[in-house]
């Protein structure tokens, strides 16, 4: 009887631990011949996205075309911007979290959204073509650092998914300009010197 009691306690402990685990917002392994993010990054980014109540894009089976920019600055609020096309409707939504992107997330955020024109959508798609988004390596090993920011861009369309992650990209790079274009479409106020 004592043994059965211990087994029940162990099962309850395991079940509660499983429920407490965070969802993975990024695939493990390979997708479309691209190596994906490492486990540390997946856990960190997923915790931030879960705190901001974001959907898991790579699991979305709808016909919606979605791109999400996640901006995690070490000492500033996390930012998520999603731009979507669904049956000829174009929408951009954004969330700004509390706390800092380099630390444990807080489940407090402000959010907003607006309808955008097809011309704005097309301009963003052109910027994706300029960086050859779907062929970019997920991670770039040449530039790494600690303090700074992660610029994470995901895309899902026609049953395919891809993610690109860059640490503090150069402001002159096309990748920076592509993500910065999304920031400019929102009404997020960035203090001077905090766009890094």
Features:
single chain, 196 residues, alpha+beta, Mago nashi protein, 6-stranded antiparallel β-sheet, two-stranded antiparallel ribbon, 4 helices, 29% helix, globular, disordered N terminus
Verbal overview:
With 196 residues, the chain is α+β, with helices and mostly antiparallel strands. It has one domain: Mago nashi protein (2-Layer Sandwich), CATH 3.30.1560. The chain contains four helices and eight strands, in the order αββαββββαββα. Helix 3 runs antiparallel to helix 4. It is globular, with a radius of gyration of 19 Å. It starts with a helix and ends in an 11-residue tail after the last helix. The relative contact order is 0.16. The N terminus is likely disordered.
In brief:
The protein has 196 residues and is of the alpha+beta class. The chain has one domain: Mago nashi protein. It has helices at 2-20, 39-51, 118-130, 174-185, and strands spanning 30-31, 34-35, 65-73, 79-86, 89-97, 109-115, 149-157, 160-167.
């Amino acid at each position: 009887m004592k043994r059965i009691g211990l087994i029940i306690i162990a099962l309850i402990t395991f079940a509660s631990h499983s429920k407490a685990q965070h969802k993975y917002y990024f695939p493990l392994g390979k997708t479309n011949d691209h190596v994906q993010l490492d486990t540390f990054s997946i856990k960190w980014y997923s915790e931030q996205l879960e705190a901001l109540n974001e959907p898991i894009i790579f699991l979305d089976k709808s016909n919606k075309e979605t791109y999400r920019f996640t901006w995690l600055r070490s000492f500033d609020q996390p930012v998520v911007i999603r731009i979507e096309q669904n049956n000829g409707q174009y929408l951009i939504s954004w969330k700004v979290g509390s706390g800092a992107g380099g630390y444990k997330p807080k489940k407090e955020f402000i959010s907003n959204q607006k309808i955008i024109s097809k011309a704005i959508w097309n301009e963003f798609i052109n910027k994706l073509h300029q960086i050859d988004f779907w062929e970019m390596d997920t991670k770039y090993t040449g530039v790494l650092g600690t303090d700074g920011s992660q610029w994470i861009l995901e895309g899902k369309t026609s049953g395919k998914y891809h993610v690109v992650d860059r640490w503090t990209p150069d402001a002159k790079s096309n990748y920076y300009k592509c993500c910065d274009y999304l920031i400019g479409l929102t009404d997020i106020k960035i203090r001077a010197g905090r766009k890094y």
